[in-house]
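Entry for the shared binder. Reason: the reviewer on the internal report wants the predicted structure included alongside the sequence.
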Amino acid sequence: MSKKVIDLLNAARSRELSAITQYMAHHYELEDQDFGKLAKKMKEIGIQEMKHAEALAERILFLKGEATTKPDAIAKKGQSIAEMLKTDLALESAAIKMYNDAAVVCAQEKDQISKQLFEKLLGEEEAHFNDFESIKEHLDKMGNAYLATLAG
């Protein structure tokens, strides 16, 4: 198969590894601050990102490539929930663009399985983006009253 596709799969895997670290760091921080409901959501998304990283590695190995173990960036810890959401939205937005572009390249390279994988991941990243955006919108509108609903 195409080295170009394997490189795209590895770039996506690196991004997923960064997302795992970031979301789990946010999970621990939110749990420590007693925002249990939001911490749980961060953990759920972090686990989904782990599954993405695994699926990408499996595809890379199937294509006879070597799956990277290096994240593409250092996780960004937010000082506030609003800052966490800002960094999480940026990470998801970058993933959405990356996976859209990667699906196009996979189609050009005639690798329908990798294309379908990127399209599946794309849908899940869009759902993550929507989750973070919804939380941010509620926080922007209701402030501390909304945060109180996330405690415990």
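Summary line for the report: The helical segments are 3-32, 36-62, 81-108, 112-142, 144-150.
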